[in-house]
Amino acid sequence: RLGKAPDWSTHRKPIFSVDIHPDGTKFATGGQGEDSGKVMIWNMAPVLREEDEKNEDVHKMLCQMDNHLACVNCVRWSNNGLYLASGGDDKLVMVWKRAAFIGPSTVFGSSSKLANVEQWRCVTILRNHTGDVMDVAWSPHDVWLASCSVDNTIVIWNARKFPEMVTCLRGHTGLVKGLTWDPVGKYVASQADDHSLKVWRTVDWQMEANITKPFNECGGTTHVLRLSWSPDGQYLVSAHAMNNSGPTAQIVERDGWKTNMDFVGHRKAVTVVKFNPKIFKKKQKNGSSNKPSCPYCCCAVGSKDRSLSVWLTSLKRPLVVIHDLFDKSIMDISWTLTGLGMLVCSMDGTVAYLDFSLDELGDPLSEEEKNSIHQNIYGKSMAITNTEAQLSTTIIENPEMLKYQQQRQTSTQTNSAPGTVGPESSAPKLNSVMNGESLEDIRKNLLKKQVETRTADGRRRITPLCIAQLDTGDFSPALFNSVPILPSGSSMSNQLTPHLSSDSSPGQPSSLGFRPSHDPMLTSPPANSLKTYLSNSGPGGQIRPFRIEPIKALDSRFTERSKATPGLTSSSTPAQKECKLKEDTSSDSEDKMASINKNLMYSKRKPELMIDGGEVVEKRKKGRPRKEKMTTSMVQSFTQVSMEPSVFLEVENEVTVVAGSKLSQLRCSKDGRDWNTLLPSSVVTAAGSSDLIAVASEDRMLSVFSSCGRRLLPAIQLATPVSALHCTAHFVMVVTAGATLSVWDVQKQKALVRNESLQSILSDTSVSQSLLTQQGVPVVGLSNGKSFCFSSSLETWSLIADKADSLVQCADFRGCLSSHDAPVSSGPLAVMQGRYLNAGRLASRLSSTPHHMQQSMTLAFLENQLASALTLQSGQEYRYWLLIYSRFLVNEGSEHRLRELCKELLGPVHTSATTSWEPTTVGFRKRELLREVLPVIGENLRFQRLFTEYQDQLELLRNK
Amino acid sequence: MAKVQVLNVAVLDNPSPFGNPFQFEITFECMEDLPEDLEWKIIYVGSAESEEYDQVLDSVLVGPVPAGRHMFVFQADAPNTGLIPESDAVGVTVVLITCTYHGQEFIRIGYYVNNEYTGPELRENPPLKPDYSKLQRNILAPNPRVTRFHINWEGVADTMEDSENVDPSPNTRGMLPPPCVPGKMPPLGLLPENSMDCL
Question: Can you give the residue ranges of the Protein HIRA-like C-terminal domain (chain A) (predicted)?
């Protein structure tokens, strides 16, 4: 009954959209800002209660976002209240999330002194539309987000994996101006300027119905066509329709999509229809008979004729019609979740709040009653059964399971921003990295502290000080699913209360309080403020008239983009490119030359000293050893160094000794102890580990010495010259110019790999990298990005990394990374795959592959990683990937694979002579690994049977 | 939407003698890791009448910029007084801070600057030839004018969609302020991914 226009919440510019947060504590508006689109978030309390409106300490505006470049046509909260989606004339859909970090801030450059009390940060931008986005809508349970545009399409986005696009619905031949989801998630309906209303199935995203008859007479005269689906799902009500040349809101029945009824009475086109989220039943009056009345729905209709009508489906006439509330067309309507309040916005830049009493509308059904209506009509909807909401009612049967569930809950809480509880806590957070230093301290010394370097071309380059990091893993499914789905709004508002109250606590500067006369949106022209400024400080307070002109001229300078920048840069870029290209081609040609002649290519490799730690320090005593190595007769000595314990190798070729015979001297110093030995031929390359030193000489001899200089093996004659030599622990690996590879175990005096030919893996490529793992597994990286290792047990080359592998590019397992395990960066797998792994993860965010494809790709990728780590016998990496793999399986619910994995790790419970099961793998006890995997499995209630099964068996085995 | 939002610019050492370096403490937020550096410039408008007297006081590259909130102080020497028309030395002018990415300007922050003599005598009777040593520079810090431009954040400049960003024709270049060294921009895809010496 009460209609009041909260005049302070006016944009002054047209407001195109309004939406009340599901918890009822705030609402968002979208519209036109000064020179951009504007999204604003407002506090609901001052709207609801007059005393809060008058209270200066209660913030009216919570946040404003200027990020949209053009008018914002629609703002919609997700059903769980965590996200806000906005769509605008800049063709973008932005998804916002509350960031729980550093305090209030203003929009820089806006003259408004009002701070943003809450920080809402754009977490994702959805780009696909080629025209203005007119409407956005979240599906029930926030599975999808739909957006429609004047490009005639509707795009369905995967709301659990932004910015992934599910599909693009094509079929409209005019501007699509409204969207609504079926409350049970089976359909989505759209209305467009092409005189049609279309209903699309969510099962196959095909068109279910195309309703045109009621719209034949319509002209494309409304800005929006916001249609709405009734909460019981039985009726769909369109915006602008015509019946006997009168504007109506067409009622479409779900059953057969019949169009027999409409809401009549508005004098101009209907722009927006919005059903009350509640289903009502007639209020039981004392004394009246308990005759069960049929539940009904309530619907608000707004029109271009500036009036608003509210209808109950049980009544033939409108419940109430409000004229002249606004000066211009109504643009959007939003009900509170309680069903008793409503916000209406208009082109005239105002928002009105209306509230109703139970007497007027009736008794709202509870969520349970509503759900039972849904289930009676539709059975269990897909959307309902698929959600974790149902799982939460699953009984936890195992106390261990309970423990892991609780741990998971506490860890999600502690992982989230400190100091906040409840759903807000999973908002993207800025992790402060200031180490206890206050921002003020940092600012004082910033100029001194900041790192400034010079680039190659002499330019200053400043490394900015990162004062807060953004958490980028926003839309991982795990995180999203852990958010409680809002059943009625009450539970959430409870959780929110402490947070909100902290917002308005006296800790906030009181200057942020709201002043009714002050229009936050109005930017005072700076020229004026400059005048005041001058009159304050200038002589005699007089502005000299001739100054006005320059100021105008100056004014234009603020907005005109400097022509210098693009012009100059673009002109210089080609030159840079060219010189870059030159460099590249020169090195390219070098490579080519190298690959023409294998000998040359191999001998080009510089001698390297590999030592177990991986960290290789090299010291070149004299100049450019690379060149010298090409020429086999080295006169100069060179030094190769390694650490831990620091071992220095020094070779002096052609040391003239008596009688003209030329010998080479090998000097080694380790921990200050030196030894040296003489070799009959020039040394080509040398390598060492903490255990041994290997030297290859010009006459194709390989000599191996202990770290104290004792010769361990007689000289080995190689068929062709050595091109790469590696030592790790007690293994020596040689790659020869004849494209063969050998590995010896010096300790056991045994060959692990015997003259294995590289021809099978070298097809038109060259070796770019080679290494020997701690376990004596040789790894060869090729110029085409593939890396192979030779598995001596399988006696074959195995592909362990392929940089061109599309699986790597598309795999997305960020959600499965645990904060406890630091990524293994030093293992052979990581070395060979290099930073491509990172790039792949980045690319996955951009890829628009459907979820199930990406899931399979990730699975395949993770299994590849596991197998590769196993072949490389890289224990740490195996364990690392095993945990990621199992977490992924747990998240994605692949029970069969999980079970197989557990079975393999557990092995046979009863040992017999015939069992071939190995209790260890790559240095780990399999059952220990299983013990690590089980808590991961325990995090998902779905697998509690599996968890219990293996937990029990492990216990059993332990007690044995 | 812009990947980089300027959250605040604090004008340090203000007001100050004319010859003091400009110091701006810039705070910005970046939505995702930027593969390229940002290029910031301070441009001093020597005369309102003509761009001819614009001076690029300095330009710096800022990077690497991972997703997050960052700050740095941009310090640049005072303008070369020889390039300022004498009639414009005293009075109101403008200093601009611009930021470009991939050679495209996406934000321009302008401040009015008032250059005044400190003493009342000089103010009343300013010398014919400006005495810069007695001038005080006062930047009108509370009133920045911020203009944001839509740029293509993803690719290179020539794939941009809106005509607003098209490079000016080459013949306008004669009027431009002193050229500054262009940003170092290794073209994408030409970076050597893997070299022989990576071990």
Answer: 709-905
